[in-house]
Amino acid sequence: MLYKTGVEYGDYTMNHVLGCTHGCKFPCYAYMMKKRFKEIAGYEDWLEPRLVSNTLELLDKEIPRLKKRIQSVELCFTTDPFMCGYPEVAEMSVSAIRKLNAAGI
Question: What is the pLDDT of residue 99?
Answer without folding.
Answer: 98
